[in-house]
Amino acid sequence: LESRLNGGTGNIFAAATAMAAEYGSVNLGQGFPSFPTPDFVKKCAAVAITDNHNQYTRPAGNPVLVETLKSIYDPLFNRNLDAMSEIAVCSGAQEGIYNILVSFCDEGDTVLCVEPYFDAYKKAADLLGVQTQGVPLRQTPGATSAGDFKLDVDELDKAITSKTKVLVLNTPHNPTGKVFTRQELEEIAAIVRKHPQLVVLSDEVYEFMTFDGLPHERFALLDGMWDRTISLFSAGKTFSCTGWRVGYCIGPAHLVAPLHETQSIIAFCAPTPLQVGVARAFETAEEVGYYESLAATLQAKRDALCSALSAAGMKPIIPQGGYFVLADTSSLLDEVPVESADGVARDVRVNEWLTKKLGITGIPISGFYSPGNRELSDNVLRFAYCKSDPEISAAASKLLDAS
Ligand code: GLN
What we know:
Elements: H1 12-23, E1 26-27, H2 39-50, H3 63-77, E2 87-90, H4 93-104, E3 110-115, H5 120-127, E4 131-139, E5 149-151, H6 153-159, E6 164-170, H7 182-194, E7 199-203, E8 229-234, H8 235-238, E9 247-250, H9 253-266, H10 272-285, H11 290-311, E10 316-317, E11 324-328, H12 346-358, E12 360-361, E13 363-364, E14 380-384, H13 389-402
Parallel strand pairs: 1-12, 3-4, 3-6, 6-7, 7-8
Antiparallel strand pairs: 2-9, 4-5, 8-9, 10-11, 11-14, 13-14
Bound molecules: glutamine (GLN).
Family: Belongs to the class-I pyridoxal-phosphate-dependent aminotransferase family.
Cofactor: pyridoxal 5'-phosphate
Keywords: Aminotransferase, Pyridoxal phosphate, Transferase
């Protein structure tokens, strides 16, 4: 295991939460809502338990859930989905990532990610002896919006070899908050068409969280891309219940069938009552205006945290969607210099400094880069704003006090 973990340093999200607990800081680290799961959602799971949905269910997904997902996603994908063969439920989207990589990559293959990337892609690849390669998003000079992060598609094209089996896309993007435009995705699709061996993992767990009216674009809708793409979603993210561990993949039957197999081997099935709970939550969400209120709530939290970061001199790159904002920590170079005798990455040291001195914990994103590009993260930290209003206010006043 040690050698397969590639010198990895444990789970950065668990470490940030433990550090925040130890120092009593405001935890803006791991992307989980600290406000309560909505009552209508909680009730759905409570009722499912009372209704005796407490045993194993179909490994590929509880029949009630996959039928409900079909009714939700048919219009979004503009298709008549087959609930039994084109949907695979997983124990959280993170397990979905593993299921996809174990299904489509052999040892020595490569998975290509847009950098910075959620480190679970690389960790899953490491476990499987699969290489991770990154193609960086580059910031245009003076960038203020996550929309200013651009992917060079020629660079992407050049990075693809016959060993590249999976291309991971992610919109809204963790950690930058970029929401890819249709045009940007079209350019990527043109590259995918040139490489018939590639499977696309389109991680869209923040699909219902775009801001300022921006649309969420689905890669699988582009010409020819349905047959090439597994889209990955998270009920935990959509319904603010990340501990339920219910995620799901949607794609063509030939790509989804292996996921049914791997799910039955790895966890047998995701938690049954919570799958039924998610189905019922989806049935209610639209009529209570849930999706609009989720996006509006997060947008207000984004604005509050970004204003405080700006006032504290930690220039934020304003996210267009999702849970996270990247902020520039170069104003703290006197307190935390780039060079350090212990060789610990600067972003990790800045996060410790902020936790101990200011009482705020974020996530260092050096682990979101491949080794050659890691210095791009030296002066950047990620903060999650999917937090309760009192926590956002507490973080804001600590930042303002320090400014
Ligand atoms: N996506 C979450 C984040 O980036 C973490 C999810 C997880 O740890 N499984 O904070």
